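User: Structure please.
Assistant: Input sequence and predicted structure:
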Amino acid sequence: MPKIHITKKYIRKRVRNPKQFDSKSLRIKDIGRKGFTKIIVGCPKGKYDAKKKRCKVGMKTQSILMSRKDFGV
């Protein structure tokens, strides 16, 4: 069961544990309407090249952020 956390502006649905990702690779990307839905993506541990600042295998979704305004919460 995915973990859901409610913050001041967002509802966060965890897709994968953040411990599975290299902490230097985590990024926030806007999807949909600007500022309303975002995803946090990162590179799996051991697959991030810090010198080139690139992921060797492709970024994976860690969490989905949805604006509380969309849900009226």
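The chain has one domain: 4-71.
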